[in-house]
Design brief:
Layout lengths: L21 H20 L4 H37 L3 H4 L7 H24 L4 H6 L1
Helix pairs in contact: 2-4
Length: about 130
């Protein structure tokens, strides 16, 4: 009987052993950044391009946090209108751990983007976005 060939699939990026090691993961991320950022900054308006991308990242995180809050708030309103005792048995959106985690993540991204911009000598898009 013929034997079946053994297929050796490549390791997917999220399954790499380096992801279990924070130092190895940072080394990998740092290498990618060093390779990619020059191509982003190669144009005459490179700083503006990067700043725009960072602003978009902050906007996406803010939007996600807002949507998570609105979704939970809608659930709270529907639940309170249809289920007796809903408010007493469920955590309000303002105190919900998922909502708070999304908000915390958005704030963390804003902070990180500010640090990246400061390190690169870019005008902070985080400050501009709050005006």
């Amino acid at each position: 009987s013929p034997s079946k060939p053994v297929v050796n699939w490549p390791v997917l990026p999220w399954n790499e052993a380096s992801h279990a090691n924070a130092e190895a993961l940072w080394k990998h991320q740092h290498t990618l950044l060093l390779r990619e950022i020059p191509s982003i900054l190669s144009g005459k308006d490179g700083g503006d391009v990067l700043s725009g991308l960072l602003r978009k990242c902050v906007a996406l995180e803010d939007d996600h946090a807002t949507r998570v809050y609105k979704s939970k708030s809608r659930d709270d309103a529907r639940g309170a209108a249809t289920v007796p005792g809903y408010k007493e048995a469920h955590i309000a959106a303002e105190k919900d751990l998922v909502v708070l985690a999304a908000k915390e993540e958005a704030e963390s991204v804003k902070k990180d983007v500010g640090l990246v911009e400061a390190a690169m000598g870019l005008e902070s898009s985080v400050v501009r976005s709050r005006l």
